[in-house]
Amino acid sequence: MTVRDWDAETYHRVSAPQQAMAREVLDRLELRGDETVLDAGCGSGRVTRMLLERLPHGNVIAVDASPEMVDKARRELGEDADVRAADLCELRLAPGEHVDAIFSNAVFHWLSDHDALFAALANALRRGGRLSAQCGGAGNVGALHDQTLAAAADAGLAGRFAGWEGPWNFAGPQETERRLRAAGFADISCWLEPRPIVPDEPRVYLETVCLGPHLARLAPDEHERLLDAVMARVGERPTLDYVRLNIVARRA
Q: How far apart are CA 251 and CA 116, in angstroms?
């Protein structure tokens, strides 16, 4: 898996939309407070802190593939969480080590192989344990991606994106349910939910969260040209067309 470079410090500052959506995902876990929970894709640790608040007598194993995010999460969480660097699709806990529940927010759409992902999560989860997750789903940021490609043409950069569909895996509920069932999950519920957001710092948010894969295709001195063109297209206070795929399941 190719791991994206993240500006973890800036992400931590601008990720209020992800934090807001995570509350609903956490509510669906219905934790007692003494469980061991896997945060599958912990990012900078901002949402992991919310999970820890619900586990006064429990433990959190927080995993992320990005070295920048892992470093930031370790600084933010200290000894409160066990932060590990790992590819979720290849996740292997220690022999005999299992978690009681798995939480994940805004992560799965960055992973191309959902069959391998759900198999690895099922292997980490004890029988009867619960999974509550949310990620970008079918249609997520479709309009923004189209606007970004149009902006690239405005900026004379269209050739850098010819034939490129992006690195995301925005899955639908039916295919996700099939994959979860094949991986050993039951009591599965998957659904799409439009969740438009208006970020507080639009340009910084787009650069840090949404357009990193686009900018990675450009030379560093072309980044501002694309960002200028995108902002001209979307306006100073854009509404981003987020569509979230919600997942609730139990390990059979």
A: 15
